[in-house]
């Protein structure tokens, strides 16, 4: 079987493990060659095979292949490390052949060999960092054949199996495996609320308290189930507790270096008290974010209401787009600025590990994400509907927004006497976020970049052809005919951006938020999400395979800070749902469109009870789910029991069954008495006498019997 | 140095490890002797030395001593088990001499040898259970000398040191060690609120919002600090995670026995789903408890108000005691009944381990404890004060309670026109619970039983003397003169009840509750508790030493379910404190004693914000405290690092530094080519050609240099 017998796609990878994209700037030719020399020496020193091919005009492609021998050693070391850190229960044996390896483990081990610091046994090649400025990126190659087969397979399935998830993990590592497992669990769990939501929409209508309660309970069960699932998967994939094996944050700047007296290690120290001080900056950051984004959103919201519901002058049909235009231009600017601040803040906090750094950044971004995602609906539900009557008169200040477009005379005709609260506004908004925005999002994420890339490639080819004098017959690069297709694929992949699973997770968590917070408004929300997520799983996989470099497999035992976010959203959901139900359950509005009969204290009491019942239910659900023993957990338990049993078996105390006048006992007594005599030579030990009175157990029995008979005698006589 | 040179107290223990109190009933003399025979054989078979002395009229005292040899083996086995279960980081070495032992470890190991099931290497002696009906109790003897020395020492100290706590743990085991450590931490933490409360009482007065906020924060910090402290102590005492080594619940009744296919063990199974169903009974139990106890307390409360504040007929001075008498007679009855139900329920839930059983029972009792402790104050604060005006007219029904004592004519004079809410009632009640009840409690707990015991002993001696014909010169028992004092002490201790640390912990947790829930009412609460707890620590120790059998050392890594209770109380404290402050901060009452200006929605909003700010603060405090590295945690980390380092050191990959034409690289290439040739014999491998193009890294460098020069050449020229 030869690879060349395949068509252009799917393309084999010629056993190349990694490709280094080495860029040589035009300015420093000698320096580039110098560094290439060093790179190749380092790679050879670490035992890698290398091949060089041209990339594009300013880059080389260095293909790397790890020989079996050193790969085995690296894998073994990695597994021993796992065992020492408690990730594996059994000590791995056999350095020469460490047993079956997954694709992901192999790539991870090689990546460790390439990038880990020298003192930890790596080659310390750090792309774009330190002495490796010209190393643009290090990436593995996509396994197109498998990817295509999976995509075909999944497009015919409703649910992925456990084995499918294992395969994803085997190819792309646990971190991405966890994302797909989450997506899959979420999708499966959505079946119930989708069904219930649909029935509820048919029978109960909007703002049904029953739907709200069921939805809240569903959210809790899902979150707690997923936590359990994480443990299960963590054990199944042998990554439970992997966060202890954190990788160093390359940007960490220690305040001082201290020699640890006990371990003899040089510790780079940055005092946690100082970090805490910097972390306190998060509070003003959160306040500023809320104010800035809140101001933008609230203003656009107010303008929209003014134009759509108060203003009735000319050009209204066009003017209604003003707020949308404002929002879609101002919000990204504000978000980008705040993201920069968040990045800067996280850098200042100066974390020692990459993992801590990422978590801290995600936490900061959460505030921004929440506001941009949910604030608009919050404003409609809890400001616009209850207080519109009071606020709308003040909206006249937004008259300035229409002034540029309307003549002075026309402006005078603006009046707002016949303002009415639009009770359907809230629902329209929720539908927008639950349906329209999801579809738009999927397109923006998958389809648009794909088309853009295709166009970019076409353009590049065109311009290169032009540069080469429109000679279509000769290929652009002087490649060996066998390798043309392969090198085309590699050049293609080298151009792609790097994948970060965080963004996809965020998207799903935000989506869960709409469900938990606002789905009482429109019970079809889960139905929409169900369809969306079937597609999402597939389109995300397509995206990873086609629009990103193959990610370097990373390990994880959780979806990270998103887990807490899910819990938080479910919790807040209990508050918003109860408030929405109370306020709107009889469509909430009086005849004039004002919600007259909402009583403040009743609303607060409703929220208070809903929230605390939620918390109690959560406690119960947690306790119940913790009792479920998943297959992996069971298997691990069994394994541990067997291990301990076999070890303790070698130690078990031989149980001596004494006959009368048992020898061991006598020997013990004899030795005691000898001890006692030996002691007497030095000093009298008072307890020796005490323990010498009854020579062995049968003497004790004799004394005991005597006592029993003596004491019981008279009493027994009395009874007669 | 001989023990006999000491006075009667403190008394040495003649190296006796345990004493078995063996009771022989009057009815079955032969059976008693038979069982004694078996007992002594079993003990001898397990390698113990025994001595028998008479106890009182119906009991024998069997003294047990474990020879060094078997004790060493038992200790070693126990330590290996700890290591296998992850309690120890290092594998214990040396079966012959397992290294230094604490008193507690020795006693625990011997207890295990005595009571563990045969299949786990014990002698399976189960007091009062199964075949050992006549074995009344197995208990170690108090080390009076040390106990007295400690009591003297501590009475002069304000704070116990870390070493003192270690000593308690070494003598009494980790479970009691944890109680004293908690008491000590709590006492130390009380210093701040006592000081702040006192200043606040002087300057800010009652119901100060500032005090409330500080108090809430203090509660959170204390609870979170203690959680951290538990981890620290757990590591220091090598008990972290000890709960996995749970001991079997002897009353567990499996539904079926299943052979575990994987481990080959016979598993006794009781399905968790069935247990869950029984656990659901907790809900009606809690409801019934609340209703029953609530009804008793509320009724007595109402009668009290009626008599003290409405009734103004004759005999008022005496009648006010009616509710107190009612309460102190009805409440114990109701509590006892409910406790019985709780015991029954817990038994029905049929837990597999003793630990689970205890936790489940404590959780059930919590409801009862909470109601009896806090409901009265709750009623005053949240029912009496806001609603008394509306309720009092209905209290006339309690006229019946005075009727038996008052003539019909007098009864007519009863009127309740001039009823006024007593704003000081709440404070009086809090003062009662914070000061009076605490003092009474300490007395009831320590002084009264001590006096009662002394009297009982005197009475017993008196009656025995009488039975022996008033002959004071001859001793009651026919003891060896050397042993008279010792046996007197042992007979004394055999009579004492068994100590359960749960009750003392409950007392402290309930006390913490008064502080967190109601101390805004009277900021001197922490001052009172500070003094009380200094005494409490000492009197509890006195109690353990003098009024209870020496407890068998048990291990624990936490104070158990009380920890969650502390968290819950701190949480509820944020709600009650904010509500109290809002309602009473300007003494809360209008001129007529009615709190007229309390607005429901404002109250609810206050509570809502207070609670959520509390939760946010808790989150921050938790995060901050988790960053503090305590000495033990640091030490453990260091130990683990050293261990891993030493192991990984043996595996580290030798780093080959290549010179030009490096040999290892060439060898690798050569071997690859050989491989390639070998493959060619079978089938052509397409990647061989690819990897064969550049023979080694210097060839790669050559190609790379050529490409760089070729591509860069024209561009460089352009730039010039």
TrEMBL record, chains A, B:
It is a multi-pass membrane protein. It is found in: Membrane. Residues 15-135 form the Anoctamin alpha-beta plait domain. Keywords: Membrane, Transmembrane, Transmembrane helix. One of its GO terms (cellular component) is cortical endoplasmic reticulum. Residues 168-639 form the Anoctamin transmembrane domain. Signal peptide: none annotated. The chain crosses the membrane at residues 176-198, 204-226, 283-306, 318-338, 374-395, 430-452, 512-531, 601-621. It comes from the Eukaryota. InterPro entries: Anoctamin (IPR007632), Anoctamin_N_fung (IPR049456), Anoctamin_TM (IPR049452). GO terms for molecular function: chloride channel activity. Pfam families: Anoctamin (PF04547), Anoctamin_N (PF20877). Its main location: membrane. This is Anoctamin dimerisation domain-containing protein. It comes from Talaromyces rugulosus. The lineage of its organism: Eukaryota, Fungi, Dikarya, Ascomycota, Pezizomycotina.
């Amino acid at each position: 079987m030869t690879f060349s017998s395949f068509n252009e796609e799917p393309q084999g990878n010629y056993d190349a493990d990694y490709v280094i994209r080495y860029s040589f700037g035009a300015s420093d030719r000698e320096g580039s060659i110098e560094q290439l020399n060093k790179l190749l020496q380092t790679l050879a020193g670490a035992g890698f095979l290398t091949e060089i091919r041209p990339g594009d005009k300013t880059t080389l492609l260095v293909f790397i292949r790890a020989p079996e021998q050193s790969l085995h050693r690296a894998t073994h070391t990695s597994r021993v490390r796992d065992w020492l850190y408690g990730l594996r229960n059994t000590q791995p044996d056999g350095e020469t052949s460490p047993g079956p390896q997954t694709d992901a483990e192999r790539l991870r081990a090689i990546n460790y060999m390439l990038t880990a610091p020298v003192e930890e046994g790596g080659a310390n090649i750090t792309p774009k960092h330190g002495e490796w400025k010209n190393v643009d990126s290090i990436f593995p190659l996509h396994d197109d054949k498998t990817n295509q087969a999976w995509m075909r397979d999944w497009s015919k399935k409703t649910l992925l199996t456990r084995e499918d998830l294992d395969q994803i993990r085997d190819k792309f590592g646990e971190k991405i495996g966890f994302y797909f497992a989450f997506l899959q669990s979420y999708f499966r769990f959505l079946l119930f609320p989708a069904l219930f939501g649909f029935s509820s929409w048919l029978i109960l209508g909007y703002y049904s308290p029953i739907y709200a309660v069921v939805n809240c309970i569903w959210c809790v069960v899902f979150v707690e189930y997923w936590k359990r699932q994480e443990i299960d998967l963590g054990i199944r994939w042998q990554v439970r507790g992997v966060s202890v094996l954190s990788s160093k944050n390359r940007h960490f700047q220690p305040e001082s270096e201290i020699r640890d007296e006990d371990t003899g290690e040089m510790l780079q120290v940055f005092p946690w008290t100082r970090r805490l001080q910097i972390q306190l900056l998060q509070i003003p950051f959160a306040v500023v974010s809320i104010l800035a984004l809140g101001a933008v959103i609230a203003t656009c919201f107010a303008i929209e209401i003014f134009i759509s519901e108060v203003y009735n002058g000319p050009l209204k049909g066009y003017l209604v787009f003003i707020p949308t235009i404002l929002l879609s231009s101002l919000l990204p600017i504000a978000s980008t600025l705040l993201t920069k601040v968040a990045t800067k803040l996280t850098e200042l906090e100066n974390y020692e590990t990459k993992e801590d750094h990422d978590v801290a950044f995600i936490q900061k971004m959460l505030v921004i994400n929440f506001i941009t995602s949910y604030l608009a609906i919050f404003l409609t539900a809890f400001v616009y509907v209850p207080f519109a009557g009071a606020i709308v008169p003040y909206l006249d200040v937004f008259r300035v927004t229409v002034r540029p477009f309307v003549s002075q005379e026309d402006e005078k005709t603006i009046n707002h006497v016949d303002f009415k609260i639009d009770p359907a506004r809230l629902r329209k908004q929720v539908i927008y976020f639950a349906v329209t925005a999801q579809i738009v999002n999927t397109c923006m994420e998958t389809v648009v970049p794909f088309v853009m890339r295709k166009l970019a490639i076409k353009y590049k080819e065109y311009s290169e052809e032009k540069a080469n004098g429109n000679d279509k017959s000769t290929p652009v690069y002087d490649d060996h005919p066998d390798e043309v297709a392969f090198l085309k694929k590699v050049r293609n992949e080298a151009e792609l951006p790097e994948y970060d699973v965080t963004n996809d997770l965020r998207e799903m968590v935000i989506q869960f938020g709409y469900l938990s917070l606002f789905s009482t408004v429109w019970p079809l929300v889960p139905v929409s999400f169900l369809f969306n997520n079937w597609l999402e799983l597939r389109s995300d996989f397509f995206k990873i395979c086609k629009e990103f470099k193959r990610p370097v497999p990373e390990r994880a035992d959780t979806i990270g800070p998103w887990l807490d976010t899910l819990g938080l959203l479910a919790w807040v959901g209990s508050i918003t749902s109860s408030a929405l139900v109370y306020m709107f359950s009889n469509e909430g509005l009086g005849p004039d469109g004002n919600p007259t009969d909402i009583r403040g204290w009743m609303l607060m009491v409703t929220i208070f009870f809903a929230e605390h019942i939620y918390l109690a239910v959560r406690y119960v659900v947690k306790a119940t789910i913790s009792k479920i023993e998943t297959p992996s957990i069971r298997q691990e338990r069994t394994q541990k029991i067997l291990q301990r049993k076999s070890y303790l078996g070698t130690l078990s105390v031989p149980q001596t069954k004494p006959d009368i006048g048992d020898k061991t006992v006598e020997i013990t007594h004899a030795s005691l008495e000898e001890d006692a005599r030996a002691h007497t030579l030095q000093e009298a030990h008072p307890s020796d006498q005490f323990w010498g009175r009854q020579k062995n157990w049968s003497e004790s029995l004799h004394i005991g019997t005597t006592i029993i008979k003596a004491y019981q005698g008279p009493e027994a006589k009395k009874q007669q």
